[in-house]
């Protein structure tokens, strides 16, 4: 996910100053590494059903033996790698086009996964629609491509539990890509059993969810960039129609969509123009648009999570 500045007339400076060392980026990255490591430890203890960890004693165990946190390393590495791949896809594409952009800012937070994600800030206008589409689609492709093998690793040695034992626990909606990978790997739970997802599989699921949310064609989300590059002045109408389409999903399926609609409404449905909107796209950009749509369909689920 990235944010734009208004596309006003802009010319690069005669002499680029070397960027200062990105201390804030490094500190936020390390802090997010710790918060995801902490949550990963909780996930791993739950996954392994380790009897030596009572529900109220996990924090105490972490305090007394810091090396306990290493159990959360698989999840932390997986989720941090997926987020980094997504943002570096944007960043490196910006560098390719000569667009000024910051390195990724990670956001540590006391959430279920230990983070609110990451973003880059684009500091200069985007020259034309081709660059806009490439920047917008590069992140979701990079995150998606890394999430698929991450899920495959998690499903390599599946575990199953009795269906009755998961009543009342958090249930994750399975997007189409989950079902495809599980089918190709022959992961079919026995009758009366449910699969127990490994923590790195949960990281892959988060990667697919972020791909879905970022590809929504609204405002200045990645999907908004792609929609503006492909459809130009119709972008605002597409944004508004999509927000209305999400409303019944929030009412009848998952309340989280209502929250997302509210956040998107605050961000606005408008997209600033590029410096030269008249330059035409190439055929490959239309193909990239179809790829983005395919990823959205593969990663979308109307009920991402429930109890």
Report what the structure shows.
It is a single chain. The chain has 307 residues and is mainly α. It has a domain at 73-103 and 126-306. It is 54% helix and 8% strand. The chain is built from ten helices and seven strands. It has helices spanning 23-48, 58-64, 73-97, 129-155, 176-184, 199-214, 222-231, 235-252, 256-267, 283-299; strands spanning 2-3, 105-108, 115-121, 159-162, 171-172, 193-196, 305-306. β2 (105-108) and β3 (115-121) form a beta hairpin.
What share of residues are in beta strands?
A: 5-15%
Strand order of the largest sheet: 1-3-2
Radius of gyration: 21 Å
Helical coverage, percent range: 40-55%
The unreliable regions are: 5-10
> Overall mean pLDDT score?
87
Strand count: 7
Anisotropy-based shape: globular
Q: Largest sheet at a glance?
A: 3 strands, mixed
- Class from helix and strand fractions: mainly alpha
Count of DSSP H/I helices: 10
Describe the structure in brief.
The protein is mainly α and 307 residues long. It has a domain at 73-103 and 126-306. It has helices at 23-48, 58-64, 73-97, 129-155, 176-184, 199-214, 222-231, 235-252, 256-267, 283-299, and strands at 2-3, 105-108, 115-121, 159-162, 171-172, 193-196, 305-306.
Q: What's the layout of helices and strands?
A:
Elements: E1 2-3, H1 23-48, H2 58-64, H3 73-97, E2 105-108, E3 115-121, H4 129-155, E4 159-162, E5 171-172, H5 176-184, E6 193-196, H6 199-214, H7 222-231, H8 235-252, H9 256-267, H10 283-299, E7 305-306
Parallel strand pairs: 1-3
Antiparallel strand pairs: 2-3, 4-6, 5-7
Helix pairs in contact: 1-3, 3-4, 3-6, 4-5, 4-6, 4-7, 4-10, 6-10, 7-8, 7-10, 8-9
